[in-house]
DNA sequence: AAGTGGTCTAGACCACCAT
DNA sequence: TGGTGGTCTAGACCACTTA
């Protein structure tokens, strides 16, 4: 029996395996898209049976840390367009097909974290942050304004050029350039009114109702890595939430 | 090998077991809160190993059809206050603790399904429906107005008296009186403006922004059983959506 | 053909609950 | 004490991918 697998109190073996694998994933021991060792090899390394390894990986799959492909292997979950669409982008046309959003970066600034922001990002108030404003479009029509807040410490050399120059989703950038793998989000929604500037950006009337989405993006061990406030024009689009459909 | 377990094409054994159990659950063979036969007995009945039965039940648990209790057994999932709060009620105070909502039925009427409603409920346009309006309160403050639409055929003898006289959640009523077990919901959210009547009910100003939630409640085999449109005053409360947190 | 994950089995033992 | 679900094992075989 492997001592490394033991947790503080009595706990199932597979939880120990899961914990070790999670730590290796969080440490970036395997690159995104790369294959993990086969189940047989992991079983051998940890000194447990394959069934126990499978049970651990089952949970990693459920938490979207890894992806299994029969006959090929188990891979570090990678951020791409389809993952964005199915797990991280929740706006759909009121009538018609789901589509990929187009993102235009409007402003990129450096600032300091407000106390509330700092608490949500688990950093100290006043710590340096990036503030990024994006305009999201669907079918060529401006639909939402995004305001992101990131701790500079977590994205050391980020510049507007890097941000704008990317040819993939921003979570793919976080993952490949900074080793930060966004696993899930926690969102709070409310209705609000458009202010003058957003009114202009979204092409709605003053006093038009907008959907406000406050998102916290989380990585391994539930660590928050991004705040985002979106203001959405819901005349032609809606936020969807299919709950209980075997996960998120 | 049991012929009954076979599906149309080649499919894993445990999928067949799951299918049979789901059909028995949908047919109401076991009452809500009642124990299913033990895994050993099910394995014997279906002529498969316990491991195969466990895998089938794992999926039923993930889809919230049943609940397992170590040492006691596996039970038909039952609608109670805590299940409501964790899976079907998504409004939380912007600051403070989650609370159970108080529901007051304002109106109870009979009518006919509009074409759009009929499509969503999978009934024919013009079929008889119930239309129910509720006022939801949290901490003694009116927070939302609910408009429900139900097919009369699915709730044969429903009356206002039965509805108001219940001492539990409405999904508990659906389950115990009509054998309809709501398993999950699909929701679409947008921002809208308060009309005159809702303005009065929620105590907000004319032109105040409200959160509009359009819900479809689904039972076994993804059959829709209830439509609900909620208008929410989000000055003090918000809609939360924690996605990917090992199921929705 | 070799390697991977997916299914299925049979059995041992443990943890928990009711009685 | 007996019954239940939970864990863990070892091995066989299947399905799929890659070379």
Question: What's the short version?
Answer:
Helix content of chain A is 29%, strand content 32%. Chain A is an alpha+beta fold.
Q: Could you explain the architecture of this structure?
A:
Two copies of one chain form a homodimer. Chain A contains eight helices and ten strands. Chain A has helices spanning 13-26, 39-46, 50-62, 81-88, 115-121, 160-165, 170-178, 196-202; strands spanning 66-69, 73-76, 91-93, 102-112, 128-138, 141-151, 184-193, 209-218, 224-232, 237-243. The first copy, chain A, has a six-stranded antiparallel β-sheet with strand order 4-5-6-9-8-7. In chain A, a hairpin with a 2-residue loop joins strand 5 and strand 6. In chain A, helix 1 (13-26) crosses helix 3 (50-62) and helix 2 crosses helix 3 (50-62). The two termini of chain A are 36 Å apart. Chains A and B meet through strand 7, strand 8 and strand 10 of A and strand 7, strand 8 and strand 10 of B. Strand 7 of chain A pairs antiparallel with strand 10 of chain B, so a sheet runs across the interface. The structure holds a DNA duplex (19 and 19 nucleotides).
Reconstruct the topology from this structure.
2 copies of one chain form a homodimer.
Chain A: H1 13-26, H2 39-46, H3 50-62, E1 66-69, E2 73-76, H4 81-88, E3 91-93, E4 102-112, H5 115-121, E5 128-138, E6 141-151, H6 160-165, H7 170-178, E7 184-193, H8 196-202, E8 209-218, E9 224-232, E10 237-243
Helix pairs in contact in A: 1-3, 2-3
Chain A binds a DNA duplex (19 and 19 nucleotides) through helix 3.
Number of strands of chain A: 10
Strand order of the largest sheet of chain A: 4-5-6-9-8-7
Q: Order of SSEs of chain A, N→C?
A: HHHEEHEEHEEHHEHEEE
Gyration radius of chain A (Cα, Å) is 20 Å
The pLDDT mean of chain A sits at 93
Largest sheet of chain A: 6 strands, antiparallel
Task: State the helical fraction of chain A.
Answer: 25-40%
In terms of DSSP E residues, the strand content of chain A is 25-35%
What is the global morphology of chain A? Answer: globular
Largest interface: A-B, 38 and 38 residues
Number of helices of chain A: 8
Low-pLDDT regions of chain A: none
Oligomer category: homodimer
């Amino acid at each position: 029996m492997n001592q490394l697998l033991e947790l503080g109190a009595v706990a199932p073996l597979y939880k120990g395996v899961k914990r070790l694998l999670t730590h290796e994933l969080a440490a970036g021991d395997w690159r995104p898209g790369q294959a993990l060792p086969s189940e047989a090899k992991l079983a051998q390394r940890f000194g447990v049976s394959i069934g126990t390894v499978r049970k651990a990986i089952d949970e990693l799959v459920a938490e979207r840390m890894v992806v299994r492909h029969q006959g090929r292997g188990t891979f570090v979950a990678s951020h791409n367009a389809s993952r964005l669409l199915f797990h991280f982008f929740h706006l759909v046309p009121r009538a018609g097909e789901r589509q990929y959003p187009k993102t235009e970066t409007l402003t990129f600034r450096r600032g300091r974290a407000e106390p509330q922001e700092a608490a949500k990002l688990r950093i100290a108030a006043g710590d340096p942050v990036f503030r990024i404003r994006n305009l999201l479009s669907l079918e060529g029509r401006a639909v939402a304004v995004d305001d992101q807040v990131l701790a500079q410490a977590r994205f050391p050399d980020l510049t507007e050029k890097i941000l704008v120059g990317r040819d993939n989703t921003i979570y793919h950038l976080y993952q490949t350039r900074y080793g930060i793998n966004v696993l899930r989000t926690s969102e709070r929604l409310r209705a609000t009114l458009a202010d003058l500037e957003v009114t202009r950006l979204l092409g709605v009337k003053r006093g038009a109702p907008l959907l406000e989405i406050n998102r916290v993006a989380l990585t391994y061990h539930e660590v928050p890595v991004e705040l985002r406030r979106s203001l959405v024009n819901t005349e032609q689009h809606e936020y969807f939430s299919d709950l209980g459909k075997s996960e998120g």
